[in-house]
Amino acid sequence: MTQTFIDLAAPIKNSSFEPDPPAIEYFDHSQGAVNFGKRYGLQPSDFPNSKYCAVERITLGTHSGTHVDAPWHYGPLCEGKRSRTIDQMPLDWFFGDGVVLDFSDRPAGYGITEADVREALGKINYTLKPRDIVLIRTDNLKRYGNMPDNWQLQPGMTRESTIWIVKQGVRLVGIDAYSWDRPSKYMLEDFKRGMREKFFEAHFAGCEFEYCQIEKLYNLDAIPKRHGFTVVAFPVKVLNGSAGWARPVALIDEQ
Q1: Is residue 7 part of a domain?
Q2: Do 135 and 201 share a domain, yes or no?
Q3: In this structure, what is the dihedral angle of CA atoms 18, 224, 253, 120, given to the nearest 10 degrees?
Q4: Residue of 174, 172, 200 lying closest to 185 (CA atoms)
Q5: 246 - beta bridge partners?
């Protein structure tokens, strides 16, 4: 038996149109010889071919790029206790059986309901079990990744659908879009119409029930089956962090 590895992470890059974009400064091998030479009192010519190690300096938030949100991101309390940060989460939450639910036909601003989730599971003849990792496919980043307002062009989850999934024993979910919730412009429209409960309703569900969510996934359309594969999505251990960057992978067993 062999395994196929499918990379589910979006790259961190300078050309990102994220609301909080990363900034990467690149130092090539020639600059490395200059920089490290200054540190150690050497000249660039002291290094082989006047070259030394290439280095990058990155400025980014913990929610830039593909990342895992911890309960601390949603609010200070979860299930009546102090919310856990990303470094406190159990590692076994980030390794498990994957399930892809396809909502790529839903328009921007659509709120994915519990009924939608149940219907999607029925279409693939699957029943969620504890510790499954549920991945919501929207194709948002693939369709709109190079557009300045791409984070406003996705469907998103609702409070009821999030809570229903978590009540099945699921502890890690993910979406191939900028947010687990609907885009901010649609939530703000509802907020101004008096529907205050719609504002980041799915995020705030994490104050009631403990779970983690992966945002800005990529390549969910490349996974050849809707279940029967493994997801590995360990987050970087950021002390007291509300999130940690991750490089999730789908492992497909093949005969």
Answers
A1: no
A2: yes
A3: 80
A4: 200
A5: 235
Contact 86, 235 (CB under 8 A): yes
Q: Is the distance from CB of 103 to CB of 155 less than 8 angstroms? A: yes
Using a 10 angstrom Cβ sphere, with 0-12 exposed, 13-18 middle and 19 or more buried, the burial of residue 19 is middle
pLDDT per position as a tens digit, 97-121: 999 999 999 999 999 999 999 999 9
DSSP state of 147: S
- Provide the 10 A C-beta neighbour count for residue 55: 14
Place of tokens 């290094």: 47
CA distances 113 to 25, 148, 198, Å, are 42, 28, 13
Q: How far apart are CA 161 and CA 194, in angstroms?
A: 21
Establish if 247 belongs to a structural domain.
yes
pLDDT (0 to 100) of residue 17: 77
The pTM of the whole model exceeds 0.90: yes
Say yes or no: 201 and 83 in one domain: yes
What's the number of domains the chain is made of? Answer: 2
**Measured distance CA(75)–CA(78) in Å, rounded:** 7
Host H or E run for residue 191: helix 184-192
Helix, strand, coil percentages, rounded to 5, for the chain: 30, 25, 45
Are the C-beta atoms of residues 231 and 249 closer than 8 Å to each other? Answer: yes
